[in-house]
Specification:
homodimer; Farnesyl Diphosphate Synthase; two-stranded antiparallel ribbon; 14 helices; globular
Chain lengths: ~300, ~300
């Protein structure tokens, strides 16, 4: 395969960045817009938007719906980082190499900025004009709400909170990560698929792909927390061990964790093969990037 | 008019309470469900759900959509109280006569519970079955997102934060309250209206009614903060003055504030008269209750 992920991503990242900058407005009152923009713009790998776009393109989805879904999942991701970094949660002062939102704008503004970003994510999915059919708008809202809420990201964070200093077995750890990071990553893929008229097999295959990539992402995150330094990560390294948090590395060791990540990559590829979709090169390359990244 | 608001409300409150108890599930992981239920159930006047239902019935709205919208606005209201009460915001320990969520469950769980309640509000608006047409689902998501986000409630809270200890004039104060509490109250009415096929005049009249009721609610809140005691309010009285927050009472005095509330009640009634709707007795009575309540 001579697929060039960097070239494929470049234009799409520009589109997403421009759309985010247009939709997350500085005019929101009393500094709230500044805090929201600080939390969202010029940062991050934009993995979730790229997953939405790759899946959306694979099913020939409505381009406006795909772009809105791509930005909406990123807003949810950004808000979760803002709240996660707050003193009552992870109490982190560094994110993407910059002071975290509450350090820069104060805790109260950070709390509000996160809340407003979550609302804005749903606002993006339901435009007033008829550029996106109402049925697709509604489906995207449902998928995002489930991925972000108590059955998804927020639920996973609650398990994470409750697990500090406690021994989790592999099944419990996997369940936590399926919710905490997996749900929104898988949701990104499934939302992209919902922007078009995919077959049952295609939806099923993409959903399985998203689940495997979502879990692989967390396994690799745990590996990098041990093997990379803060400068490379753009966030505090070694945090999990310092907080005595259960991770794949603490549970199965570094080598078995690496092997597990490769196994999940193989699962992701199989799921794409089973989907019957023709244009899956971007999805394949994104899965490879998730597993083989160094930050 | 011999309309009995108490009788009208009774069955509807039971329906809302039952639906909230069914939709806010205790099974959410690691205590998150308990915190969410504690924040939502057995408390509050349920003014917003009643406004949704009264408006929804006035336009002959889809009953399932009306019930879902009624519960969704209450979840947004509940989450905003949880986050508002946190130490980095109002730092309040008493709400509806009980310890606030962060006092009972810890700050991290309170933060997550608020986040999960916001997501759940949107999830309720977009059911997977076809009980509510996709176009109505999408419209409700859009209206709720706008009412809750940076152009609505969250934006108003940001202005509120920035205004502590600062002199606001009447226009600035009104702008803050239109966003902070007015947007979700007006949004409740407008969402109820969006559940049916109302005429332009009806939608316009209901929207104006919602704006007047929303503002009146805050004026009366400011009055009660001065005139009522904590036991009657179920929350800490005299808080605004203690925090040197601008209020209608501090700006225009008690008597002019009371006159203004009555003026807004008259505006709400005129808007209903202009709506051309026939069944507005419940809406009229709710506006009266907002202005003449003692807690």
């Amino acid at each position: 395969m001579s697929f060039n992920l960097r070239a494929w991503s470049a234009g799409r990242l520009d589109t997403v960045e421009l759309a985010l900058s247009r939709w997350v407005v500085a005019e929101a009152p009393a500094g709230l817009g500044d805090a929201m923009r600080y939390a969202v713009l010029d940062g991050g790998k934009r993995l979730r938007p790229l997953l939405v776009m790759a899946a959306g393109e694979a099913v020939g989805g409505n381009p406006e719906a795909v772009l809105r879904a791509a930005c909406a999942v990123e807003l949810i991701h950004a808000y979760s980082l803002v709240h996660d970094d707050m003193p009552c949660m992870d109490n982190d002062i560094l994110r993407r190499g910059k002071p975290t939102v509450h350090v820069k704008f104060g805790q109260a503004q950070a709390l509000l900025a996160g809340d407003a970003l979550q609302a804005l994510a749903f606002e993006l999915l339901a435009p007033e004009d008829d550029s996106v059919p109402g049925a697709i708008q509604a489906t995207l809202c449902r998928l995002l709400a489930r991925a972000a809420g108590h059955e998804g990201m927020a639920g996973g964070q609650a398990i994470d909170l409750a697990s500090i200093g406690r021994a989790l077995d592999e099944n419990e750890l996997r369940h936590m990560h399926r919710l905490k990071t997996g749900a929104l990553l898988q949701g990104s893929v499934v939302m992209g698929a919902a922007c078009g008229a995919a077959s049952g097999a295609a939806r099923h295959g993409l959903s399985d792909y998203g689940a495997a990539v979502g879990l692989a992402f967390q396994v690799v995150d745990d590996i990098l927390d041990v093997t990379a330094d803060s400068a490379t990560l753009g966030k505090t390294a070694g945090k999990d061990a310092a907080q005595d948090k259960p991770t794949y590395v603490s549970l199965m060791g570094l080598e078995r964790s690496r092997a597990y990540a490769q196994e999940l990559l193989a699962q992701a590829r199989s799921a794409l093969a089973a989907s019957g979709l023709e244009e899956t090169l971007a999805l394949q390359a994104l899965a490879g990037m998730v597993v083989n990244r160094d930050n």
